[in-house]
Amino acid sequence: MSRRPVPSILPSEITAPEVYASRRRFLTGALAVAAASAVPPALAAASTGPVGRELGAHRNAALSTTEPPNSWEDVTGYNNYYEFGTGKEDPAANAGRLRTAPWSVTIGGEAEVKGSVTLEDLLKPHPLEERVYRLRCVEAWSMVIPWVGIPLGDVLRRFRPTSRAKYVAFTTLRDPAQMPGQRYPVLDWPYAEGLRIDEAMHPLALLAVGLYGRVLPNQNGAPLRLVVPWKYGFKSIKAIVRIDFTERMPATSWNRAAPNEYGFFANVNPAVDHPRWSQRTERRIGAGLFAARQPTQPFNGYAAEVAGLYGGMDLARWF
Ligand SMILES: Nc1nc2c(c(=O)[nH]1)N[C@H]1C(S)=C(S)[C@@H](COP(=O)(O)O)O[C@H]1N2
Ligand SMILES: [Mo]
Q1: How far is Cα 300 from Cα 298, in angstroms, rounded to an integer?
Q2: Where are the domains of the chain?
Q3: Yes or no: domain 11-310 corresponds to CATH 3.30.9.10
Q4: Is 141 near ligand 1, meaning CB less than 6 Å away?
Q5: Which of 140, 194, 200, 240 is positioned for an S-S bond with 169, CB 3.0–4.6 A?
Q6: How far apart are the first and last CA of the chain?
Q7: Distance (Å, rounded) from C-alpha 27 to C-alpha 24?
Q8: Whose CA is nearest to atom 12 of ligand 1?
């Protein structure tokens, strides 16, 4: 067992950021009579439209939703990335200085090919695809994001996982000098996530390097992040520096922080509430304060593709 400092505030005592943010907007809005916009005034003023190096990517229409994508401002201005603060606007304000090049990823564990690989070499053999996916946060909000990336399974297979590889563990960079949020014990750093190997090999699991046709903004997980569209957003780990093939289910950050609230599987499931709020509906970011909440779909709308991965499992127990 590793020792860790006792957090001064338990994760379960932190006001859900969602609640905090909406409360704050309400206060501002009530005074400014600007409540119809869900975008905070400071962000709206700073909006520039898409920026960053353009990537050539071909749209994978078969795997894309036809729902309209959220604006660049929503996607890059309303983020969860606790390494840069727990507020939704903190990552956009603080992640800019993260050095994302050079970048390499270390592959370890139950695989025949292991060691450090540069990001360029990791990406080289794979054509980039654009896929428009819903992102459903466990905090009951959602967005639609045009990601650019490569299928995770295609990358993993190159390292020839052994027959003992039952899970894949992912680790974010740990660098408190660059990631100021890591100076506070909000989570057990570095951020860690994992998938069962069949989930990781599923064609919908994406390793993203861009969005809106451009290189990922730092606040969205540059230079390399996971996107697992049928699971709650916290599974989609950002700024990945390690990938390990494991025989045992790996420890994951949110599950360690509050195991009764965040399961390992974390499949989007409107029938299983979070202990502190309902998961039946969601608020689409950018739809405006008066827009109706939308019903949340099992597996975030990807049930036809992925439900078969969980045949025979009690999804209320394995939440
Ligand atoms: N390393 C790291 N990855 C992370 C997080 C984080 O705090 N740290 N937040 C997660 C959560 S809760 C969500 S909802 C998504 C948000 O992705 P986005 O900001 O690109 O929309 O990132 C996930 N990946
Ligand atoms: Mo989330």
Answers
A1: 5
A2: 11-310
A3: no
A4: no
A5: 194
A6: 24
A7: 5
A8: 234
> What residues have their beta carbon closer than 5 A to ion ligand 2?
80, 137-138, 233-234
Q: What is the pLDDT of residues 66-88, one digit of tens each?
A: 999 999 999 999 999 999 999 99
Please tell me the distance from the alpha carbon of residue 252 to that of residue 3, in angstroms, as a whole number. Answer: 16
Q: pLDDT tens-digit profile of 107-154?
A: 999 999 999 999 999 999 999 999 999 999 999 999 999 999 999 999
What's the gap in Å between 17 CA and the centre of ligand 2?
Answer: 10
- Taking CA atoms only, the protein residue closest to ligand 1 atom 6 is 81
